[in-house]
Specification:
Helix content of chain A: 25-40%
Number of domains of chain B: 1
Number of helices of chain A: 21
Strand order of the largest sheet of chain A: 6-7-8-3-9-10
Number of helices of chain B: 12
CATH topology of chain B: MetI-like fold
Largest interface: A-B, 59 and 33 residues
Shape of chain B: globular
Structural class of chain B: mainly alpha
Distance between the termini of chain B: 24 Å
Oligomer: heterodimer
Distance between the termini of chain A: 50 Å
Strand content of chain A: 25-35%
C-alpha cells in the first residue's frame, strides 16, 4: 500500500457546537483514513456526531459549529487551512454529498437533469450536452425507469426512491473522488431501499469512488461498506473491516448494537377480542383507501399491521379512532359497536383507546412541559388535580424509566427516545385498554428502538394492554407481535399468527416484503433474488 | 460533561437540555444580545410609557388650560409656545402621549381580541363558518379602510368609544387573516389531533394547544398593527373626525398648528411647532418597528454564533 492510495486522512479532529450560550464538544478527536475506492460505514446513535464527521470530511461545518483542532487532509491538501472560496472548488467537483431527504434537497422549480449536471457544467468538467448524455447513462446504470426522459421531469413528478437515485446520479456526475452518503435510504420503504442500495453500490464499484456511508441501520451498512467505524458521543468506539466487525465485535457497546435484532417476545395466552374491525371500507373524499378490511385484536396481545406507504395502514388507525368514519363496516370494541364518528363517542370510549404517534416531536405541544402533557389526561379523564395529579405524573415517569428531573422540561429538551416515552406515558395516563402505535419506533435509532419496544412489552405484561402496532419495519414485527396483518393498497393481503405469516408459503407480496429486509450478512445483497410481483 | 455508562438507559440519552434558568435570567441573556436598534426602540417606548402614565405630574400646565396669548413664541414660560387659542404646546404634547397612545393601545387590543378569536375559530373549524368569516373579511378589506372609517364615523359620530370600536373592527380583518393563516399550520399538528381524540373542547384547543404556538407572529403583528392604528387615529384627528377637542392629541395638534409652518421664514422655531407632534408620532413608530424587527429575528430561530 503506497501513500498515494490514501485519499482522505483525518487526524485528531475536534469540532464544537454552539448552544445554550456555550461551546460544546461534538467530535472529540477522531481519526479517519479512507483509501481510493473504499467505502466506509459510519454508524452510531443520534448525537454520536456521525453526520458532523461526514460533513467535516468535506471541510464543511454546519452553521453554529466550528473546527477547533486536527487536520482534514484530502488528497494532500489540508481542508482546514482553506478559505471557503477555495473549498468551494472541491465541493460539487471532487467531493459530493447525498442528503437524507431527497425531496427536500431538490429545487422544485428546475428539471431533474438540469440539477444533475449543474455543478459538472459549472466546473467545466464537460459541456452541457456531454454532461446530459452522461447523466442519462448514469440514470440507466441506476436502474431508473425511462432513463432517457426521466431527467425532463420535475422533482414532484417522480417517487422518493427515484429521487434518491437521481441525487446519487447528481453526486456521480462530476466523477468525484469522494461521495458522502448521509442516511440516504432511511426515509424509504424496504422494497425501495433495496433498489436504491443496489444502484448505489453498483455505481460506486463501477467508478472506483471512495465513499463515506452514514447510517444507523447496521444491516444496511453491512451491504455497503468495506470498513465500519462505530462512533459514540463524539469518540470512535472501534473500527474494523465489515466481515470482522459483524462476526466478532470487540467492544461492549458494539455488541449491544448487534443484539437489538435478537429481541423476541414470549407467548401470551389467547384472550377474547377487545377490538374487531369488521369489513371496513373507507375513502378520503372520492378516493377509496380501504377495501373490506377486517382485523381482530385479542385482549392483551400485539397485532402488527405491516405494509409500505400508501397501503392504508394509518387509515385503519384513523377509522378506529373515529377521525375518519368508514363508509361500510363496523368497529366493535369489547363486544359493543363503537359510534363511527368521534363526536358521537363518549368520554369513556375515548379514554379506552389511546394513540401514540410516529413523530413524537409533532405529537407533543412544544409549549407544554412534561407535567402538563402527562397531567392533562389525568385531569381530563380521571379528575385528578393538585397533589394527586402530581404524584401520579411522577409514578408514570418512573413507569417509563424516566425520573423526576424530567417533570418540568419542554419537549425540545428531550431526546428522541425520551420524547416517545413521554408520549407513551400520556397514553398510559388515561388507563386505556387498547393503544394504537403508529410507526412509534421508525424515527428512532436502533438501540433506542429496542428500549422502547422492551418498555412496551413490559407494560403489556404488567397492565394487560392490547396494541395495534402499525409499522413498515419487519424486524420490529418479528420482535414484538403475536399476530400479523399484511396490507397492500388498502386490502389485507395476509393475516394470522406471527409464525403462520412468517413461515412459507407466503402470499407473493408478503414474500417480497420479507425478502427485502436487509440482513446482517455482507453477501446478502449480492445473493438476493427478489420475487417477481405479478 | 459526565461520563456516560456503557449500558443503555433512557434517562441518559443525549439531549439538548439547557441549564435550569429562571425566566428573568433568560430575559437577561436575550437582552444582552439585542442590537442597538432594539435597545434604542425599547428606551423610546419606555419613555413614552412613563410620559403617558405620569402626564399630570410631568406637564407644566393643564391639558386644556388657555393662556391669554395665542401662537406665543418659544420662551421660558411656554417652552414650545402656545397654540391657536393659547394652550401650552408642551403640556398638550405630554397629554397627547396618554390620549393618542392609550386609545391606539386599547384599539389594537380590541382588534386582536376580535380578529384573533375569530381567526382561531375559522382555522379550527374549516367548515362554513370559515367560509362566512373569510368572505366577510374580504368584503370589509375591499373598501379602503380610511374612507370606510370616515363614513362610519360620520354616521355614528366621533366619540372616543366609536373611534375605538370602528378602527378595531376594521383592523381586526388584518388580524383575522394573519391568525387564520398561521393557525391552520398548527391545527394540522398531531398534538392538536391528540387533543381532539382526547375529547377536548374548542376553548381548550384554541387557548392551550394553538395560541401559545402562534404567539411570536401575533406579538410582532401587534407591534405593527399598533403603529398603523396609531397612524390611522392621527390621520382621522388631522381630518377632524378623530379625537375631539379639548382632548390633546398629536394628529389634531398637527392640523391646528399646520398654518404656522408658513411663518418658518420669519421665525424658524414657530415653523417647527407643527412638526413636534408629527415627530412624536414618527419616533414612536420607528421605535416600535425596531423592537418588532428584532423580536421577529429572535423568534425566527436563526442562530447567531459569536464570530
Amino acid at each position: 500500500m503506497t501513500k498515494s492510495d490514501i485519499l482522505l486522512d483525518i487526524k485528531g479532529l475536534k469540532i464544537e457546537g454552539w448552544s445554550d450560550e456555550k461551546w460544546h464538544p461534538i467530535i472529540k478527536g477522531v481519526d479517519l483514513t479512507l483509501r481510493r475506492g473504499e467505502v466506509m460505514g459510519l454508524i452510531g446513535e443520534s448525537g454520536a456526531g456521525k453526520s458532523t464527521l461526514g460533513l467535516a470530511a468535506m471541510g464543511f461545518t454546519q452553521p453554529g459549529c466550528r473546527i477547533t483542532g486536527g487536520q482534514i487532509v484530502f488528497d494532500g491538501v489540508d481542508m482546514t487551512t482553506l478559505s471557503d472560496a477555495q473549498k468551494r472548488r472541491y465541493w460539487g467537483n471532487r467531493m459530493t454529498y447525498v442528503a437524507q431527504s431527497a425531496a427536500a434537497s431538490f429545487n422544485p422549480a428546475h428539471r431533474l437533469i438540469d440539477q444533475t449536471v449543474a455543478s459538472t457544467v459549472r466546473f467545466g468538467i464537460s459541456n452541457e450536452a456531454t454532461a446530459k448524455s452522461d447523466a442519462r447513462t448514469l440514470y440507466s446504470a441506476l436502474n431508473l425507469p425511462h432513463a432517457d426522459t426521466i431527467g425532463d421531469r420535475y422533482p414532484h413528478q417522480v417517487s422518493g426512491g427515484q429521487l434518491q437515485r437521481v441525487m446519487t446520479a447528481m453526486a456521480m456526475s462530476p466523477r468525484p473522488d469522494l461521495i458522502i452518503f448521509d442516511e440516504p435510504t432511511t426515509a424509504l420503504d424496504v422494497t425501495t431501499q433495496v433498489e436504491v442500495l443496489r444502484a448505489m453500490r453498483k455505481i460506486v464499484e463501477e467508478f472506483n469512488t471512495a465513499a463515506i456511508y452514514i447510517t444507523h441501520d447496521l444491516a444496511v451498512v453491512a451491504q455497503m461498506a468495506d470498513v465500519i467505524k462505530v462512533l459514540r458521543f463524539g469518540h470512535e468506539v472501534e473500527e474494523a473491516d465489515t466481515r470482522t466487525m459483524l462476526a466478532a465485535p470487540k467492544e461492549d457497546y458494539t455488541k449491544s448494537l448487534w443484539s437489538v435484532r435478537a429481541l423476541t417476545k414470549p407467548e401470551r395466552p389467547v384472550q377474547e377480542n377487545i377490538l374487531s374491525v369488521r369489513n371496513v371500507s373507507a375513502s378520503y373524499g372520492k378516493v377509496p383507501v380501504l377495501h373490506n378490511v377486517s382485523i381482530d385484536v385479542p385482549r392483551g396481545s400485539t397485532v402488527s399491521v405491516v405494509g409500505e406507504s400508501g397501503s392504508g395502514k394509518s387509515t385503519v388507525a384513523r377509522v378506529i379512532t373515529g377521525l375518519l368514519p368508514p363508509q361500510n363496516g363496523q368497529v366493535m370494541f369489547d363486544g359493543d359497536p363503537l359510534p363511527q364518528a368521534l363526536k358521537d363517542r363518549t368520554k369513556d370510549h375515548k379514554k379506552r383507546v389511546q394513540m401514540i404517534y410516529q413523530m413524537a416531536d409533532t405529537a407533543m405541544n412544544p409549549r407544554q412541559t412534561v407535567r402538563e402533557i402527562i397531567g392533562r389526561p389525568l385531569e381530563f379523564y380521571l379528575g385528578l388535580t393538585g397533589r394527586a395529579k402530581d404524584d401520579r405524573v411522577r409514578e408514570l415517569l418512573s413507569l417509563i424509566e424516566l425520573d423526576d428531573r424530567f417533570i418540568d422540561r419542554l419537549p425540545s429538551e428531550l431526546s428522541g427516545g425520551q420524547k416517545q416515552r413521554i408520549c407513551i406515558a400520556r397514553a398510559l395516563a388515561a388507563e386505556p385498554e387498547l393503544i394504537i402505535c403508529d410507526e412509534v419506533t421508525s424515527a428512532l435509532d436502533q438501540i433506542v428502538q429496542e428500549g422502547i419496544l422492551k418498555l412496551l412489552m413490559r407494560l403489556q405484561s404488567e397492565l394487560n394492554l392490547s396494541y395495534l402496532f402499525i409499522t413498515h419495519d419487519i424486524s420490529t414485527v418479528r420482535a414484538i407481535s403475536d399476530h400479523v396483518v399484511v396490507m397492500q393498497l388498502g386490502r389485507v393481503v395476509e393475516q394470522g399468527t406471527k409464525d403462520s405469516v412468517f413461515q412459507p408459503p407466503h402470499d407473493p407480496y408478503t414474500d417480497l416484503l420479507l425478502s427485502s429486509v436487509p440482513e446482517m450478512d455482507p453477501d446478502w445483497l449480492s445473493n438476493l433474488k427478489l420475487p417477481e410481483l405479478t | 460533561m459526565t461520563q456516560t455508562p456503557d449500558t443503555y438507559s433512557a434517562a441518559n440519552e443525549k439531549t439538548a437540555f439547557a441549564a435550569e434558568r429562571t425566566r428573568w435570567d433568560k430575559a437577561k441573556i436575550v437582552l444582552r444580545k439585542s442590537p442597538w436598534s432594539a435597545r434604542f426602540g425599547m428606551v423610546v417606548i419606555l419613555a413614552y410609557m412613563i410620559v403617558g402614565l405620569f402626564a399630570p405630574i410631568i406637564a407644566p400646565y393643564g391639558e386644556a388650560e388657555v393662556f391669554p396669548v395665542p401662537f406665543a413664541p418659544w420662551d421660558a414660560t411656554h417652552i414650545f409656545g402656545t397654540d391657536q387659542i393659547g394652550r401650552d404646546i408642551l403640556s398638550r404634547l405630554i397629554y397627547g402621549a396618554r390620549n393618542t397612545v392609550g386609545i391606539a393601545l386599547v384599539t389594537t387590543f380590541l382588534s386582536f381580541l376580535i380578529g384573533g378569536g375569530l381567526g382561531l375559530v375559522a382555522a379550527i373549524n374549516r367548515s362554513w363558518i370559515d367560509q362566512v368569516l373569510s368572505r366577510g373579511v374580504d368584503v370589509l378589506m375591499a373598501i379602503p379602510s380610511l374612507i370606510f372609517a370616515l363614513v362610519l364615523l360620520s354616521i355614528f359620530g366621533s366619540s372616543a368609544v366609536n373611534l375605538i370600536m370602528i378602527i378595531a373592527v376594521l383592523d381586526a380583518t388584518r388580524v383575522f387573516r394573519l391568525t387564520r393563516s398561521v393557525a391552520v399550520n398548527v391545527v394540522v399538528m398531531e398534538y392538536v389531533e391528540a387533543a381532539r381524540l382526547r375529547g377536548e373542547g374548542l376553548g381548550w384547543i384554541m387557548r392551550r394547544e394553538i395560541l401559545p404556538n402562534i404567539m411570536p407572529p401575533l406579538v410582532a403583528e401587534f407591534g405593527l398593527r399598533f403603529c398603523f392604528v396609531f397612524l390611522t387615529i392621527a390621520a382621522l384627528s388631522f381630518l377632524g373626525v378623530g379625537i375631539q377637542p379639548p382632548t390633546a392629541d398629536w394628529g389634531s395638534m398637527v392640523r391646528e398648528n399646520a398654518s404656522l409652518i408658513q411663518f418658518a421664514q420669519y421665525d424658524l422655531k414657530a415653523g417647527l411647532t407643527p412638526l413636534l407632534p408629527a415627530s412624536a408620532i414618527a419616533l414612536l413608530t420607528v421605535a416600535v418597528n425596531f423592537v418588532v424587527d428584532w423580536f421577529l429575528h429572535h423568534t425566527s430561530g436563526l442562530k447567531d454564533t459569536p464570530k
